[in-house]
Automatic annotation (TrEMBL):
Domain DUF7282: 35-121, 152-248, 260-372, 394-473
Lineage: Bacteria, Deltaproteobacteria, Bradymonadales, Lujinxingiaceae, Lujinxingia
Alphabetical UniProt keywords: Signal
Protein name: DUF7282 domain-containing protein
Keyword Signal: yes
rRNA-binding as UniProt keyword: no
Pfam families the UniProt entry points to: DUF7282
Secretion signal, residue range per the UniProt entry: 1-21
Length: 728
């Protein structure tokens, strides 16, 4: 810190200080420059009061801390002053002060107006041959803040954040969120740093979504090693009256229409291993849930046969063990239940309200299927007509084989030419969804035949002359025929509301019967390309696209598929020979940002840990692992920020001036453009929205910083015109 003012003349730094205590200073009218700062006990730990200042021209009062040798060190804050006298000035500082800390105040003058004061104009004010600089001491009543937490039951919105109603700490601390285990705090799932002070409505981002009706615990921990992340071993819990500062609360999900689905195929089980069933697919969006298997009772779920808990997400080919093996063929029901309460136990009985059945569109999310028990000693082969939904185009699937010996499944075309052979093992006796690779791609609509052959010499390749077809009791071969089809080009896109960012679209589904290019453009201007994506053959669902400009409310857009022929793009056609093209409308609520940033911290550095849409991640130089990264903003675009370290480091936007900072826009308040209608600043705790107007650019916006640690947590901002859209 003692090198922070190295640009000042060493001779000026070495001259004696003019005292603020002791003898009374001469009256104002006998002095040209004067600064008086008394020893004080600030009401807030990051601001001091300048008793009086007299300046012969415009300048700054600058507050410094003391370096290791007791000399003026790092500038902590400053305030602009006009020519003349002033009293009782409040200077906001870059950090909270320490009890009995020695500080220095200096008066700097400039020949220019204070608003354009530059370091090169710096002149340490002189009065009667001596620099105008004073020393003083602050007394901080650290005991005035009693550590406390108030955590209330709440609806989590979004479901990966919680809000602590009130937090107070007399030291720098961590506010930590833990899961529950038998009524006690368990795993850490979120944390936020707190500078000593009192805070209301602190938002904490969690590592995962909360469970519905989940019990969580909030606690305060002393920050044992500043500038690092929370460490459960060293950052011990804050105690008051020998009791830890902990608040417990229950979080519930917003009352949203649940999204869930389940699909189960009819299946065959060996009579020797009928102790589990397979769920082909299921979706649990936004909640953890149970898949429960029931016996049939007159077409409705009857006796419970199995239940298994799954986290939110998509599931495929899930095997669920039954409580007891099936003894006969049966019709079963698979039903989804919500995990509520979040206790890990399936306690649904239809009356107690626990683990309720999930209802979508007024119907229980359920699938009914048949289970057939088979004798593995009697060979059976099932092949179904199929549509190849993805690459490669040289593989087919055999639905089921019942055979308890080693053998071969051989695929023949309509000309009786062998296209491929796949070896099958003796166990398990019932084999499902066997994939066979062919020696060429499928022809659309062709009929194939699969034949079961024995394996005369285990371990060698298939030999048609030795590995003969397997015959049944009637001396007939075990075989099955099936037809294979390829995808036809098609496209689906629904009207959609862009309520998070106005530069991100979703296309519901694309069936690509060949390699295609998906283009998005506006109906009002088909010459400009808004977005594109190259897609291989296959079914592509929920395609997320970054759009090259903010979309407008009520715009009609066009999605169309193209292919390449001799290097040129030509419209892709559907099975009727028509272009594959759909129109859809977008709704953009007022105030929706074009880009949304998530700010976090790495010690005493900001990080931009996420950018949405991801297609604009490049405007953050260095990406999510860069400390205090440079950020590029576009003129006229609206931006949103979720500053998850807001309580300790609220954001300010502006430009530096010598030893001060002109705040143009603030996350808290105090920015000169905070109330500008064109900027339309909206602040909601740790979230902030604003529009980058031309006035804000003309005012010199070039920096973001933390209000509380501005010397360390700051990065540059580059503003430029909106990027041009490529021509179609």
């Amino acid at each position: 810190m003692k090198n922070a003012l190295r640009w000042l003349s060493p001779l000026l730094l070495a001259v004696p200080l003019s005292a603020c205590g002791g003898e009374d200073p001469p009256p104002f009218d006998a002095r040209e420059n004067l600064l008086t700062i008394d020893d004080q006990s600030p009401e807030v730990p990051d601001a001091i009061i300048v008793a009086s200042v007299l300046a012969e021209s415009a300048g700054y009062v600058v507050i410094h801390d003391a370096d290791n040798e007791g000399e003026p060190g790092e500038p902590l804050g400053s305030i602009a002053v006009d020519a003349g006298s002033a009293t009782e000035l409040t200077v906001e500082l870059a950090r909270p002060l320490l009890d009995q800390e020695l500080l220095y105040g200096s008066l700097y003058l400039s020949d220019d107006d204070a608003e354009t004061f530059e370091p090169n104009d710096a002149l340490l004010a002189i009065d009667r041959g001596e620099p105008v600089r004073v020393s003083f001491t602050v007394s901080i009543e650290v005991g005035e803040i009693i550590p406390a937490l108030v955590a209330e039951d709440q609806i989590a919105d979004p479901i990966n954040e919680v809000v602590i109603s009130r937090a107070a700490s007399n030291v720098n601390a961590w506010l930590v969120i833990r899961t529950d285990e038998d009524g006690e705090p368990a795993d850490v799932i979120g944390s936020a740093p707190l500078t000593a002070g009192t805070y209301d409505n602190v938002r904490i981002a969690l590592d995962r979504d909360v469970l519905d009706e989940e019990l969580l615990h909030a606690s305060l921990h002393i920050d044992a090693a500043p500038e690092d992340a929370f460490d459960a071993a060293s950052d011990i819990v804050v105690m008051v009256d020998d009791a830890p500062v902990i608040g417990s609360f229950i979080v519930t999900h917003p009352e949203l229409q649940p999204v869930a689905s389940i699909s189960v195929d009819d299946q065959s089980l060996s009579i020797e291993a009928a102790d589990s069933v397979v769920i082909a697919g299921a979706e649990l969006q936004g909640f953890a849930g149970w898949i429960a298997i029931y016996a049939d009772d007159s077409g409705e779920p009857g006796e419970l046969l199995a239940s298994e808990l799954f986290p939110a997400g998509e599931l495929e080919n899930i095997t669920i063990p039954l409580d007891a093996p099936l003894a006969d063929d049966a019709t079963l029901h698979a039903r989804i239940h919500q995990e509520s309460p979040a206790d890990g136990n399936f306690t649904f009985d239809g009356e107690n309200g626990e683990d309720p059945v999930v209802i979508v569109d007024e119907e229980a999310v359920m699938a009914t299927f048949d289970v057939t028990l088979i004798d593995p000693s009697a060979p059976q082969l099932t092949a179904e007509d199929q549509l190849l939904e993805s690459l490669p185009l040289h593989e087919v699937t055999i639905a089921e084989l019942v055979y308890d010996q080693q053998g071969w499944l051989v695929i023949y075309d309509a000309e009786n030419t062998i296209l491929g052979a796949v070896a099958v093992a003796a166990e398990p006796a019932v084999k499902a969804n066997i994939v066979a690779a062919l020696n060429r791609d499928i022809i659309h609509g062709e009929e194939l035949r699969v034949v079961l052959h024995n394996d005369a010499a285990a371990g060698d390749a298939f030999d048609l002359s030795a590995d003969l077809p397997v015959l049944d009791a009637t001396e007939s071969g075990i075989e099955a025929s099936f037809t294979v089809e390829l995808l036809e080009n098609s496209l689906e896109a629904r009207d959609q509301s862009l309520d998070v960012v106005s530069t991100e679209l979703r296309i519901d589904v694309v069936h690509a019967g060949e390699s295609v290019i998906l283009e998005i453009f506006a109906e009002s201007d088909e010459s400009a390309l808004l977005a594109e994506a190259a897609l291989d053959y296959g079914i592509h669902q929920d395609i997320v696209l970054t759009v090259g400009r903010p979309l407008e409310d009520g715009e009609t857009l066009i999605a169309q598929l193209f292919t390449r022929e001799e290097g040129e793009r030509v419209p892709a056609e559907d099975e009727d020979g028509d272009p594959v093209r759909v129109t859809f409308d977008v709704t953009v609520p007022e105030g929706t940002p074009a880009v949304f940033f998530t700010f976090s911290a790495n010690g005493l550095n900001y990080r931009v840990s996420a950018v949405r849409p991801a297609g604009f991640a490049s405007i953050v130089e260095g990406g999510s692992n860069a400390d205090n990264p440079a950020i590029t903003l576009f003129n006229g675009w609206r931006y949103g920020i979720n500053n998850i370290v807001y309580s300790a480091n609220p954001l300010q936007f502006g430009l530096p001036d010598f030893l001060s900072y002109t705040v143009l826009l603030s996350q808290e308040s105090g920015g000169s453009y905070d109330n500008d209608s064109q900027i339309n600043r909206v602040a909601d705790g740790q979230r902030l929205w604003f529009t980058l107007s031309q006035d804000l650019i003309d005012a010199g916006l070039n920096t973001y910083r933390s209000r509380k640690t501005p010397a360390l947590m700051r990065g540059t901002i580059t503003t430029q015109g909106a990027p041009a859209l490529p021509a179609r």
